[in-house]
Amino acid sequence: MYYGLSPDVYLAEVDGDIVLLDARANAYFCLPRVHTRGVKAALLGNHRFRPSADLLDELEAAGLFGLIDTPPDAPPVESRARRDLFRLPGARARLTPWRAWLLIRVAVRTRLRLGLFRPRRWLAVVARRNAHGREDDGECLLALARLARDIQPFAPAMSSCLPSSLFLLDLLQRHGLRARWVFGVRTYPFEAHCWVEHDDIVLNDSLEHVRWFTPIVAV
What we know:
Elements: E1 2-5, E2 9-14, E3 17-22, E4 27-31, H1 33-36, H2 40-43, H3 54-61, E5 65-68, E6 83-84, H4 97-116, H5 119-130, H6 138-151, H7 161-174, E7 180-186, E8 191-198, E9 201-202, H8 207-210, E10 214-218
Helix pairs in contact: 4-7, 5-7, 6-7
């Protein structure tokens, strides 16, 4: 047994500060650098013995930290983005009657999923579907992403980052395609954000905007 972050709790280091995402509760916690000295290694989950620290006591009481079976071996999350769809010319998928009906269904499903579930469920569903999706048809994927982008003015509820990302991912997965969903954070002021990537292309945001954020989890 090891001490580390609880399952479904994710960590990012932003200029010395530590940000935690509790995907079970859809809650973020920012730990200023002055309070994290000496406990960062414990939070990363590579100790069999827990250091004595008030901060760790508080995190353990909140269910964010404690005993885990094995130390995490995943590398820090990084964004692969080098380009964005806004500056990438290409065709848009045709808005056929079948596809219009699919877009409506996906929009309704997105609102239901946002209202009924927490990030842990969203991430699990996307990861499971991505495991069966393909990335080899990049032209079709980008064309669908352009269609999703172009209809947003007619669906304002899909314009913010969470519904936009879930909507796009669901649309792609319904065509047998997969893309990467990235959550990022920044501090001073604190802000959380998410976006969708394919290879090195941001699909539903600008490259300049996502570069402000440090990734905390990706599926």
